[in-house]
Amino acid sequence: MTMPAPGPGGAPAAAPPTITELNLSDDIKAALASALADGNPTVVAYVDEEGQPSLSFRGSTHVYSPNQLAIWARNPEGGLGNALSKNNKITVLFRNPTTRAFLTFKGDAHIESAPDVRDRVYSGAPEREQQADAEKKGLAIIVDLKKVDGMMMPNRYAMRK
To answer: Exposed, middle or buried, 62 (CB in 10 Å: 0-12/13-18/19+)?
Structure first.
């Protein structure tokens, strides 16, 4: 029987988390819902129209369904919305240093124009984000998740679709 390689300080390293079906928990939903108020907006990574990797803070990221995130992008002419037509793959990073939570969400994003979806995505964004786009001119972006990895104490995640 082989033992895991030693971790920091010589202690055995933790075994990797068991891969499970992608299903965003209530804990993840709550963490994202309070991320902006807690001072921890998500960071979205995407490839811009010139092929340059780009990062963008997003305070409106929230759980849309058990395997989807939603983002309200206030500027309809902004980089994220324009980039999705060429490359829809994005990564969303969430970190809360107070709770030691760290999650990466990877998936395919698309812009939704259906009025009911736009209303739901806008309504799911924090009030501060809504006030910054009171005329609802922004874009409703849905991220169809493929994988989620990370931890929210005491749980470790390796979810796949």
So the answer is: buried
Q: Which of 111, 96, 105 is nearest to 147 (CA)?
A: 105
Q: What is the pLDDT of residues 98-146, one digit of tens each?
A: 999 999 999 999 999 999 999 999 999 999 999 999 999 999 999 999 9
pTM across the whole model? 0.90
Chain centroid offset of residue 140 CA: 14
Structural tokens at position 121: 């995505």
First to last CA, the chain: 32
Sign of torsion over alpha carbons 66, 68, 69, 72: negative
pLDDT band at 5 (very low <50, low <70, confident <90, very high): low
Calculate ∠ Cα 109-105-65, nearest 5°. Answer: 65
Contacts for 76 with CB less than 8 Å, ≥ 6 apart:
137, 138, 139
Q: How does strand 155-160 pair with strand 20-21? A: parallel
Structural domains of the chain sorted by starting position, each given as residue range(s) with its CATH number in brackets:
17-160 (2.30.110.10)
**CB–CB of 71/58 below 8 Å?**
yes
Report the length, in residues, of the chain. Answer: 161
